[in-house]
Every structure is written in C-alpha cells, then in structure tokens.
Amino acid sequence: MNKSCLIGFLMCSAFSLVVQAATDGAHITKTISQIERKKGIKRTIQYRPDGNDFVCVNGKNRYTRALYGGITDFRIETSDRPVFAAYKPKDSKHICFRLQCGNQSIALDSLKFCEARYRAGRRTYRLTDPLLGKGELNISVLAFPDAEGGIWRFTMKDMPEGALLHCYISEIRAKNLSRNGDMGADRADSFDAPQLPKEQKHYKLSLDGTTAYIVVEDQELRLPALVEGTSLYDKSEKWRSEIESSLQISTPDPYFNPLGGALAAAADGIWDGKIWLHGAIGWRSQLNGWRAAYIGDFIGWHDRARTHFDSYAASQVTDVPATIPHPTQDTALHLARSVKKWGTPHYSNGYICRTPYRKDQMHHYDMNLCYIDELLWHFNWTGDLDYVRKMWLVLTSHLAWEKLNYDPDNDGLYDAYCCIWASDALYYNSGAVTHSSAYNYRANKLAAMLAEKIGEDATPYEKEADKILKAMNERLWIKDKGYWAEFQDFMGHKRLHESAGLWTIYHAIDSETADPFQAYQATRYVDTSIPHIPVFADGLDRDYETLSTTNWMPYVWSVNNVAFAEVMHTALAFFQAGRGDDGFNLLKGSILDGMYLGKSPGNFGQISLYDAVRRETYRDFADQIGITSRTLIQGLYGVSPDALNGKLVIRPGFPMAWDKASMSMADLAYEFLRKGDMDIYNVTQRFKEPLALTLQVNAVKDKIRLVKVNGKAVKWKTEEAANGYPLIVVSVPAVTKAEIEIQWEGNVLQQIANDEIVTTLEGQVDLNAPQGISFLKVYDPQNVLVTKKVNTTKLSSKVNKDKKGHHTFFVYTRQGNMEWWQPVNVYVNVPQVVYNGFENIETGKCRVVNMDKQFNSSVADIFKNEYLSPRSPYTTLQLPTQGIGEWCHPLLTAEIDDSGLRSLVKDNMYKTSLGIPFRVMKEGNNIAYTSLWDNYPDMVKVPLSGKASHAYLLLVGSTNHMQCRIANGIVRVYYTDGTSEVLELVNPDNWCPIEQDFYLDDFAFDAPRPRPYRFHLKTGIVSRDLGKALKLRGSADRRFEGGAGVMLDIPLDKNKTLKELTLETVANDVVIGLMSVTLQ
C-alpha cells in the first residue's frame, strides 16, 4: 500500500474508514541477478508484447517508465501500478490516488488486478478489485507536448455509486537526486512520498460519470472541466500519435513490433529544441556524443538533424590556430591528458566544443569523430548539396584537426583520444588504433566524393583515405587470425595488442574498411573471443545471448561492461557482414534483456543487468537510442541510402525463417512477403527525389525462374559475398513505387559445413560435398590448410602446424544455377596443459639464490616514483606519472606496505606456508624492478648454478587493462648448454596487479584456473584466492591493503646445469620486479 496516500487520506477525511490491506507486488517474481542466474534461476519476463504495447499484470516496478513532454527536463514518472511522480529539478512531486467506495478505501497501486501498458509515450492501466464489484477503472496518462505538465484520463465502467477518487500531490522522499532520479543511480524509492509529507495537497474526484480528468501543471494538481480535459487529452494524444507514427515496423516476432514507436518516443525525449542530448534522464546534458545524432535521419526527422548539426557547427573553433607544439600534457594531472589551453593542438581550429553555439568552452573528449560520421550519414539520407557546401569547411577543418592531433607522424594510422562511448579509461599512448583510423578513413573517403560534387579538390582526401586503408591492412589486420588488432604500440617494442574490443570490430566494418571476407572473419572473432552471457527466462522460445565489450582485466569503468549500445552496434556489424540470423539473435537478446526482462518497459538503457559492476542502470540513453535506429533500419531492414549519388540499397537482414515484414518512415516504406516460392518486395519511396534502388537478398534456392519489377521481367545478377549465401542483386530505376517479385525454383541451398570443424594440431580437414554441390576453388586467407587438394566433391588437407584456435577458410561452390563462397570454420583444438605448479615441494631440497646485488629498489617505491621517460612526443592519453591510474583518474595511487612481510623475515629468510623458503631482505632494497621506463633497467640477470627441478619465484609489479591478454614480461631460465625455459607473464593468466585482486565471474571476467598463488605484502598470507582470504567483497573495488605479489613455479630439467635467470619487461606502462628465487 502507498503509505503516503493512506496518511494523506486519514488527515484529510472527516469520517472513519475501514482500510483494506495492501497487496503490492504480491503477484510478480523479482528479477534476479546474474549471480543468482548462475545458480540456475532464470529471470522473469516482466513485460510482454501485445501489438505495439509493452504489457505487465500486477507489476512491481515503480517510477521506471518516463513520459516526456516538450523540450524541457520535465517528465512524468510512471509505474507498473498507478503511482506517479512529476519530475522537475529540485521540485519533483509524488502523485498518488486512493479509491473510496462507501466506508472502504484502497490505494490505487494496491488493487487486486492491474494491467499496465506502455505504448510510445503513453501509459495506461486497467484496474479491477473486489471493492469495485463488477466495476472497472481505466487510466491513461500523457505528458503535455508544449508545457511542463501532463494529464490523467479516468474512464469508468460499472463503478459503484458514489465512488470517489482522492488525489494527492506532495514532495518526494529523496532530498537530493544524484542522476535526476534515474534507475540504478538513485534509490528506487526516491520518488515516494516521505512518511509524513509536509507539503501534501488533497483533491477529490467523483467517479460517478464515465470520464474524468486530472492535470498536473506548475507542479500542482487541478481538476479541469470535462470539456477542457478532453481537449487537453486529445491534443496530447494527437502529438503522441504523430511521434509514434514516425517509425512503424511489423514482423513475425511480436517482441519487435512495439520498437518503432518506442524508439521515436525515446528520441523525442532527448530532443531539447537545438540538439540531441546525451540522455533523457540521468545524462540529460548538452554533450556532442556519442551516437545519438544518428537518430534524426534514421527515423526521418531531418529537420531536427540539421538543427543539431548547425548548432554544433557553430561551436567549432575557427579563430584559434595551433601555436603551441606537441606534446601538451597537463602536468597538474600527471601528464595523463592534454592540458586545457587554447592554442595547443587539441584546443585549436577544428575542435568542436561540447555546448552548442559556444566556441570558448574546452571539453576533454574528441567528440568530433562521431559528429562528423553522423553528419555524413545526414548527407547520405538527404542528398542536399547546398547543405554540403555550407558544411564543407566544418568537415575539412575537422579532418585537418584530426590529422594534426592524432596522426602527427603521418603514417596513416590514428591515435584515439576518448572518441567513442567506451573512452573513459581507454588510452593508447600515441598508438595506431583501429577504431579511430576507421572513422577517419570513412570521413576522408566521403570528403573526396563530396569534393567532386561541389567542385573542390578531392585529391588530398582520396590520398589520405587510401593511406589509412593500406596501413590498416598492413599493420592492424592480423591476417593469420582474421581480425583487426586493438592497436599497435607507438612506444617500446611497437607490439600489436591482439585482444580487440567490440568497438574495434564494428567500427572497422561500419566504416567500410572491410571486404566481405574480412567482415565475416572479423565477426567470427566476436563469436569466439568476446565473452557471451546467456539471456534466458521462462516463457522465451529459446535462450539468447548478450556480449561484454571486451575480455580485459582488471575491471575499470567503460572498458569491460555489458552496454546495450555496444551490443547494438555489434549486431549492426553482423548485419553488414551478411550474417542476418546472427545479427538478429544479438539484437533480440539485447532487446529482451533491456526492454522485457528489465525494470523499464521499452527502455533504451545504457547498462545491462548482466554488467558485473553497474547492473541495470540508466534509461533512454541517447547513445543507445541513436545506434538502435541504425541497427533496426540499416541492419534488420537493410536500408542504406546514398541520395548524393541517387542510389538506395536495401539488403534485408531478416532471419531466413521470416516470411513477412514491413516498415514505414518518412523517407520510405517497404513490405516483404513470401508466398511459397515467390518473394515480393513492395517499396514506396518518399525521398525528395526517387532513388535508383538496388535490392540485395540472400538466395533461398538454387535457381530463379523469373524476376519482375512492376510486372516486367528483368535481369538479375549475383554479387560477391562471404556469408554463406549467394547474394542476388536486382536493379530498379528511380521510381516512387516498385514491386519486385522473385520466383525461386529448384532445390534449397545446402551448406557444406553447418558446424565448426574440430581438429587437432597438424590434424586433417576432410570436407565432402553434399549431393548437388560442387567445389570449385578455395580461398584460405588465414593459411589454415597445408595442401588444398580439392576436386568437385571433396576437399582434403592437413592443418598448418603453427595454427591453433579458431580459423576460417572459404570454398567457392556451385549448386544449380548458383555459385557462391561458403565459409568453413575450423577449430584447431590444442589441449591446454594446465600446470598447477607447487607439487611435490620438498623443503629440505630447496636452496635460496642470493640476488642481493641485483636489488635496485624497495617494493613500496613502485608508485612513489615519477615515470617521466620515455614518453610520446605527441599529445595523447597515457599512464599518469605515478605509474597507476588513467586519464579519468590521473591522481590515483595505491599505498604499498610490505611491513608485514618484512616482519616475518628472520635472518633474511621468509618461510611460506607452502614450505618454500625465500631469501627476502628485512631492511633496505628488497626487489629488482624492471621496466621500459628509464627508472629501471628493462632486464635483470640473476646468476644460477647447479641443477634443479623447480625454480620458485616471488614477483611483484604493476599491470593494467591496456596490457591485458598480452605478455607483460618474460622470465627465462638458461642452462649452460644454451637451451632455456621460458615463462611469459600474461595478465590475467599468471600476472596480476600489485594493488588489487582480479574479479572473476566466468563470463566477462574469466581467467585460467587454478589461479596463481598470491602473497600479501602486509601480512605474508599466501593463497590462490587471496581476495577470499582477505574477505574482499564485490566486483568493483578489490584493492589489497598494502598490495600483493605473485608466486610462480617454473619446472626445470633436473639433468641440466643452470646458468642464469633473466626477467625482462616487454610491455609499456608496467613495472615488474623479482623479489626472490628459490631452487629445488
């Protein structure tokens, strides 16, 4: 029961009542967390689709679906039951109702039956209860389109005579809201009334008629006359309906059908009259990023899109030349980021400020890249060359600014300076980065095309685009694995960081840097290397999945999250790669996760419940709204206009099992219908001028009897594709309406390898052609196969001896009249030898190695130093001078305290609980640190002698998320005969950060088991699960008080004589130290 309503009613009524007991939330199982899911408990479907509605019965979520009105921050918060809030900064109100029938009363949010519906900006309720007898109360809630307020319409049917509704408005419980009352950031009960409201007002509404209204305006309730109420409601509903109609979709999958209107309503919620805001609620601020501004053009609101682009064009710096040379790092922020000073390369001509119509406001992010990409898509949709001319200088100034700042060495590959959503804590130290290079490739490529259209010189942009693509293919594309590296180091050994994030894959594909074979291979990297998290609930047709953004550790915000927009953009890349079924599955998994299983119906949220740290957080986030529009329109429906060149491509990404689908928006509408062996596409164009249409569809049979366009037979062709289906291409001249009819015949197309082939190192791949299929040739870009003995019916080959893991090659096949490439995925299964180490420890046979002369520091000094060189000669994001933190936390440090360990040392001997003795200094220097920083040598050598079966090591040092899944250091033990044993120190396998424990959940955060032993510097405790031993809790803050090292065991050849041990640091950023060596 809503306590504030009860209190208010008792305070305001003059007669006694019998109060009915509450039943709030008694009918819905709570949504459960990932941790509970791992125990076998499934999530609940909290909302179900019904036409264009999201529906729940007796739901439990309060204040989780906002209704947005005009362009201000006012909103009405609705719940699964009829209890509300009217949000206004520092003046939010709680609104509730209490039903009285005779001498009984009950809060409306406690009635026995409540069906709640959300539909594109409108919330409705159908209520029944024993108190009403056969009566039914219906409520419809809308926000005003042009004022800060809203209206409730009450419709009564067979209500008891004399029924009365008591209406209350009061202050809310929360005195302060950290994120405007958003989900996951502020308490769920923030909008409830206080236990004893001080500002409560009470109104009575008779329910004897058939319709009544209540209005909130100026944060007060009033009861309008029926005529006025009807007028206000109809006006609001008309506006809402127009917003909803901006995008309408229909599919065989009911979970998709409400999305068009819901997306438009959310988009309207982030529009402030000048720009697309950063979010509708928790991030409701003027910020030129990230992917929000796609929304205008992809749902046909080109006027709003242009207003947005004009607003930020007016904030591009035009009168501040770059007079201060690189590097321009901020010394106060420990060199982690650029100093905020006009005239530096970062804050100079071409830079776009965060607030519209402000050229004097420095903001740290490079949001230029997103803005320009969105602007280029606006040109694609509208084809407006006059606007291209107007914005030409904006585009070219941006390109010059990007080149000056992020490719100052002119190698064609660009640094990334917090230029995507996942930018907080990303830093590349002037490295060559895939996602930023891809953005700049597309921008230069389209700039060259635009230049030719408007009579400008296209040459510099053509050359730059060619240079970028060539460099990406030569340096960042990992040919033998089939995807792009995250980045290549500028400093140190210039190594490739092969563990790519989602953004690396989808940006490269989205920016058109990939050919069809690269696109397929790169999406396979997502299949095999990015953590997949199950999405399942009772009532779903099957289990689905969502994705983490990386597999990097340790956790830091925005680097390893389950973020809806990241999954959406990845789904778009799958559609673009021709993998429609797989793109659809990702898309649906994310939609189910956020909109139906989550707490907010139809929510375009930021962070998923499956996120290990943040859980379900934020509603109607602009980044997700913008990219979802592209994934639906450009991905699922396959619509890609190029109005500048008079072209329109439609390449539907529908699941192969669908037999119908349709969509309608301002620029076009089309319908797909399958009748037996005939596919029909009806396309109606509403562009300013009709565009020449190219329809691209996957073949479903091996012959085509006939293709007709508007009743006339036409020719068709195939286009090269690598997704496993022949790509049929039908060209249609520029007409307003086109009916394309494809009549299939023959046999259903056969796949030569439905599942991944599993083999072993140097194993055999034998592929037999199904009946009716002929093999013609093989394309093996990853060089998986040794020999390519292929005839028309069989392919047989050994696997190359240096191959392991997941790979792909392609076979060109023929069936009937169709010829096409089919991918063949191969998993070379090399059993992982898990060496647990520390077996058969014999204390009596252990001898410590004296390495006193190698010691060059105290363990506790690691973050007390200033690491000043070598550093990039260019402005960049980089590790702070103290050796820990990142640009978002440039002053972060950790106090390392080895006093406890030293106190356990006697006669410079430390005896571990495992029985292994180590020589450790009780006073003075006690470690040999190595690093690529000039503070320490990059290698230390320790002389050895005699023979041994094991070398036990105490190691201490730093690592971070940017050095994950790559060797940070290498330990080598040499024998006198020149041979050696080699142990790579890899984060997170066997190398761990001194200051914290890794959080592990077997999904986004996973590492080999058993974990290495860690020893606590403050207490000397040794454990394979030191976090548990020290009672660390949670997923985010897992810092060790005092720090911890790693204890490793290197097995040796006991028959060989030892010469020396070396420790070499090979990764940038890190410091690795050797405390002790013991031989057994």
Describe the structure.
- With 1080 residues, the protein is of the alpha+beta class.
- Helices cover 20% and strands 27% of the residues.
- It contains 17 helices and 55 strands.
- Strands 1, 4, 5, 6, 7, 8, 13 and 14 form an 8-stranded mixed β-sheet that branches.
- A hairpin with a 6-residue loop joins strand 4 (65-68) and strand 5.
- Helix 7 runs antiparallel to helix 8 (385-406), helix 7 (368-382) crosses helix 9 (434-454) and helix 11 (502-510) packs antiparallel against helix 12 (516-529).
- The longest helix has 22 residues, at 385-406.
- It starts with a helix and ends with a strand.
- The model is unreliable at 1-41 (pLDDT under 50).
Assembly type of the chains comes to single chain
Instruction: Estimate the strand proportion.
Output: 25-35%
Q: Any low-confidence stretches, pLDDT <50, length ≥5?
A: 1-41
Number of strands: 55
Structural class label: alpha+beta
Q: Shape from CA axes?
A: globular
- Largest beta-sheet details: 8 strands, mixed
Distance between the termini: 70 Å
Average pLDDT level:
93
What helical percentage do the residues reach? 10-25%
Record the SSE blueprint:
Layout: H1 3-12, E1 18-19, H2 34-38, E2 48-50, E3 53-57, E4 65-68, E5 75-78, E6 84-87, E7 93-101, E8 104-107, E9 113-119, E10 122-128, E11 136-143, E12 149-157, E13 164-171, E14 201-206, E15 211-217, E16 220-222, H3 226-244, E17 247-250, H4 259-269, H5 294-298, H6 302-313, H7 368-382, H8 385-406, E18 432-433, H9 434-454, H10 459-476, E19 477-478, E20 483-484, E21 487-488, E22 496-497, H11 502-510, H12 516-529, E23 532-535, E24 544-547, H13 564-576, H14 580-596, H15 622-636, E25 639-642, E26 647-650, E27 660-665, E28 668-675, E29 678-685, E30 692-698, E31 701-709, E32 712-713, E33 717-719, E34 727-732, E35 737-748, E36 757-759, E37 764-768, E38 774-779, E39 789-790, E40 794-798, E41 805-815, E42 818-828, E43 847-848, H16 899-903, E44 909-911, E45 917-919, E46 928-931, E47 939-943, E48 950-957, E49 967-975, E50 980-986, E51 1013-1016, E52 1022-1023, H17 1026-1029, E53 1044-1051, E54 1058-1065, E55 1071-1079
Parallel strand pairs: 1-8, 26-30, 36-42
Antiparallel strand pairs: 2-3, 3-9, 4-5, 5-6, 6-7, 7-8, 7-13, 9-10, 10-11, 11-12, 12-15, 13-14, 15-16, 17-27, 18-21, 19-20, 21-22, 23-24, 25-26, 27-28, 28-29, 29-35, 30-34, 31-32, 31-35, 33-34, 37-40, 38-41, 39-40, 41-42, 43-55, 44-45, 46-55, 47-54, 48-53, 48-55, 49-50, 49-54, 51-52, 51-53
